[in-house]
Amino acid sequence: MENEDLKIEVSTLVAPQNNNFLASSILIAAILISGSLIYSTGKQPAAGPLGANVEEAVAEATGKELELTSDDVVLGDLNAPVTVVEYADFQCPFCGRFYSQTASQIKENYVQEGKVKLVYRHFAFLGPESRAAANAAECAKDQGKFWAYHDSLYEEELRDQQEHNGNLNRTLFLSLAEDLGLRADEFSACLDSNKYDEKVQKDYAEAQAVGVRATPTTFVNDKKVEGALPYEQFKLIIDKELAK
């Protein structure tokens, strides 16, 4: 467990899914939705341009895959009435935008008030660096530092502003772990064993099962939202869910 306020971390196994992690035919494309870019796996999103109505970019989603399990890392009050599940890739620049511009305000205005809980799941489709970063974050979870490590990875990518340039590597992962005070031997052993590679792949498979085709994709309860939409638009969706 983390000692930081509002951070609850537990871990167990999830049901097996398809182990085919990435098809070689995946096409990485930028798609414009209401001024907010997302990365796509090649399939066009069901939602059209947002326009004046935020609900045009929101779809309903159902399925057991959205239910929280003890494998999830939850930020906030477990009894919060609204759950925001994010599927993202640490290399994705628009996931970084969501982290810095939108999620930060959701945390401040809803999570800290006990109204929303956040869950982060891996959709590491941008290649080996993305999968390695996801594994490193899971290793940090073993020592109760998932969210702090998550933040450090995104801060690094926001500074770097590049993809596939080799910066998400073992040296960086160990440096971030040291900065956060993680036990070095335990962290490096976890990292070098690829302990969480299967878990990262399962996250990807489960994301596909609920229709995730791009990063970032978030679910506000059962409402699927594609793209790094501005905080004001997420606020409309969250407030509508809170009013139910």
What labels would you give this structure?
disordered N terminus; Glutaredoxin; 7 helices; 244 residues; three-stranded antiparallel beta sheet; seven-stranded mixed beta sheet; 38% helix
Q: Any overview of this molecule?
A:
The N terminus is likely disordered. This protein has seven helices and ten strands. Helix content is 38%, strand content 18%. With 244 residues, it is an alpha+beta fold. The strands form two sheets. A seven-stranded mixed beta sheet has the order 1-5-7-6-9-10-4. It has a three-stranded antiparallel beta sheet with strand order 2-3-8, with no helix packed on it. The chain has one domain: Glutaredoxin, CATH 3.40.30.
Note the topology.
Blueprint: E1 7-9, E2 29-33, E3 36-40, E4 58-60, E5 73-75, E6 82-88, H1 93-111, E7 116-122, H2 128-141, H3 146-160, H4 170-179, H5 184-192, H6 197-209, E8 214-215, E9 217-220, E10 223-226, H7 231-242
Parallel strand pairs: 6-7
Antiparallel strand pairs: 1-5, 2-3, 3-8, 4-10, 5-7, 6-9, 9-10
Helix pairs in contact: 1-3, 1-7, 2-3, 4-5
